[in-house]
């Protein structure tokens, strides 16, 4: 070692091998990983306490069996699917519409810069948003079918209630990100509260709003295809009845139709959003 | 309209300012789109069958449901609720761990800057399949194959996690700084060393964030796939609603909301401290 290596204030000895982390950090990291593995093993055992491994071992045969029954898909079933498909599109579109109409006031009440009261109103609006988001649309549909009976209406309301949280959250974030100077400029002209929102905030969030609406519509198309499983109308009802009667070739046809619808709606939504932004 | 191009030269400025049209600037489309939308609305609302009597009945049931929500009954079905919750939580954790472990190689394979083109195509198609199939539909099939119970649910969630985590991980790897990759490559590192020293430090915080987010999503989904027989709290909820036991259903929903909120705040807190 040369004299250059021992300047005052620096350690006399450098480790020969460069290490990514300090020993303490490494120890903590290892501890964390070991804890995770232990938790995983424990959960695995609890979860599979009642699993019948005979069924699991049998699964590949079952898969081959179902696969052979599904193929070829039954094209003669296609005409029967057109009306349910139309219903599904209506559930998604009307549901999105309803959700947006409900979400706009909630978003304005939840945004920090437009809410009338940060102490009282804002927490309520945020709670509406969070509870709408934390319940899946299928659960909403399950509840609504029990409440207002099976059919399209239950699906539409379920989609609408589910959409509030998503649209509300993204919209209120967009409102909070608006440029304050424009709002100030509009306020300086002596505009009232509603005019400030109309001229100062709405133009700024409008492109984001349409983007969010299209995005949610796209998601809602996906979700509305399965709402029929709990009786809320649309193509999912056909899926349920085909599964119940073990008509696997019909199931294959329905799945292809669902997949095609989802792909088309996704492409459409992506295109509209790109045109907007 | 008070303003036209010709009137500008004669100094008659419009007395009222009109906001110029936003988004749709062509006049023809501005007229056509609302008309088309209106036509659709009439058609769509026409296909809706609403029975007044059924709705009135629904109102009274709705009142009972709200009452059940306000006075949730945790005790009388507690055994079922507990069983469902344990299934949901264990299934969520195991599925997320397995899903993330499987997604890592797939995510690396689906990153354009790391893997050769054939591998890239294969991994991207795995991601596309996993993302385009709904959890519920996967669950129906897996229940048909593996029988009722949480194991089918575990597989469903793990499979669904792959599409989500692998896609976002791959996108993140593609965005990783190329100069760091180049620097490590210049030292003569092998492929694995490259991933370990150049990619992993850059994407690890994001991967942890994604995993926590997916944990959150998987719990929400685990509350649903029970409806088609894949175990978890969804099955309990379905039974409660089928039996019109709205007080138990209210209790289950409150528990689900509480756990989801806890997970959301917990995971955002964890992500903040880790990054």
UniProtKB/TrEMBL annotation, chain A:
Protein name: Phosphonate ABC transporter, permease protein PhnE
Pfam families noted in UniProt: BPD_transp_1 (PF00528)
Superkingdom classification of source: Bacteria
Cited NCBIfam families: PhnE
Predominant location category: membrane
4Fe-4S recorded as keyword: no
Annotated membrane topology: Multi-pass membrane protein
SUPFAM superfamilies linked to this entry: MetI-like (SSF161098)
Similarity comment: family membership: Belongs to the binding-protein-dependent transport system permease family.
TM segment ranges: 27-47, 91-112, 141-161, 247-268
InterPro entries according to UniProt: MetI-like (IPR000515), MetI-like_sf (IPR035906), PhnE/PtxC (IPR005769)
Source organism: Halomonas halophila
Entry annotated with the keyword Cell membrane: yes
Localization terms from the record: Cell membrane
Sequence ranges assigned to domain ABC transmembrane type-1 in this UniProt record: 85-269
Assigned keywords, A-Z: Cell membrane, Membrane, Transmembrane, Transmembrane helix, Transport
From TrEMBL, chain B:
Membrane topology term: Multi-pass membrane protein
InterPro entries, per database record: MetI-like (IPR000515), MetI-like_sf (IPR035906), PhnE/PtxC (IPR005769)
PROSITE patterns for the chain: ABC_TM1 (PS50928)
Organism: Halomonas halophila
Name of this chain's protein: Phosphonate ABC transporter, permease protein PhnE
Protein family (similarity comment): Belongs to the binding-protein-dependent transport system permease family.
Compartment annotation: Cell membrane
Residue span(s) of domain ABC transmembrane type-1: 85-265
Residues passing through the membrane, by range: 29-48, 93-115, 136-162, 249-270
Predominant place of localization: membrane
Keywords of the record: Cell membrane, Membrane, Transmembrane, Transmembrane helix, Transport
Keyword 4Fe-4S (UniProt): no
NCBIfam families: PhnE (TIGR01097)
